[in-house]
Amino acid sequence: MRLTFLSLIAIFLTFTSCKNNGATAAQESAEPVSTTEVSWLGMGDVEAKLNQKKKKIIVDVYTPWCGPCKMMDKKTFSDPAIIARMNEDFYPVKFNAEGPDPIQFKGRAYANPGYNPAKARRRNTQHQLSPFFSVRGYPSVIVMDEDLNIIEKVTGYRNPEQFMQLLDKYSS
């Protein structure tokens, strides 16, 4: 019994000391890429990320009351292939076009001074940043280049196959 216990401890120590498996320090310190959910950023966070590494940006412009927006979250943005591609090749950003949060973007401050918390799940006033995107409906997906220039706008629900075509078009 004691020999079995000591053998198990020796095996445990062997495995834990070898957990690196030859990974370099750069690989260990690399930012992990989630494969179970899209790693959404806020609109105000994307510029700091671009200073670290240049990537194109995918902005999901939505509202809380939008049925097709919820369907995109449930069906498209939960697809494993979409998750992997977005997290690897893009900075995915969620932007509530009627949300209350103040945002610093391209050197300017944007807010939603008319926001009514009582209407949080219904139509509310438009966020001041919304006109920058000039969307005509929700959901809208905005593709931006590494310099924050809009290069494409897509309005309406996209299933995973349709959305993957958009990602393929702009992947690095």
Question: What does the secondary structure layout of this molecule look like, with pairings?
Answer:
Layout: H1 2-17, H2 25-29, E1 41-42, H3 46-52, E2 56-62, H4 67-76, H5 80-89, E3 90-96, E4 103-105, E5 108-110, H6 130-133, E6 140-144, E7 150-155, H7 160-170
Parallel strand pairs: 1-3, 2-3
Antiparallel strand pairs: 2-6, 4-5, 6-7
Explain what this protein looks like in three dimensions:
- It is a single chain.
- The protein is of the alpha/beta class and 172 residues long.
- It has one domain (37-170): Glutaredoxin (3-Layer(aba) Sandwich).
- The chain has seven helices and seven strands.
- It has helices at residues 2-17, 25-29, 46-52, 67-76, 80-89, 130-133, 160-170, and strands spanning 41-42, 56-62, 90-96, 103-105, 108-110, 140-144, 150-155.
- The strands form two sheets. Strands 1-3-2-6-7 form a five-stranded mixed beta sheet.
- Helix 5 (80-89) runs parallel beside helix 7.
- The radius of gyration is 21 Å and the shape is globular.
- The protein starts with a helix and ends with a helix.
- Residues 1-32 have low confidence and may be disordered.
Strand order of the largest sheet: 1-3-2-6-7
N-to-C series of helices and strands: HHEHEHHEEEHEEH
Q: Residue ranges: pLDDT <50 for 5 or more in a row?
A: 1-32
Distance between the termini: 57 Å
Query: Whole-number radius of gyration?
Result: 21 Å
Number of helices: 7
Any idea of the CATH class?
Alpha Beta
Q: Name the CATH superfamily assignment.
A: Glutaredoxin
Give a count of the beta strands, DSSP E runs of length 2 or more. Answer: 7
**What portion of the residues fall into strands of 2 or more residues?**
15-25%
CATH topology: Glutaredoxin
Number of domains: 1
Q: How much helicity do the residues have? A: 25-40%
Shape designation: globular
Task: Output mean pLDDT.
Answer: 85
CATH architecture: 3-Layer(aba) Sandwich
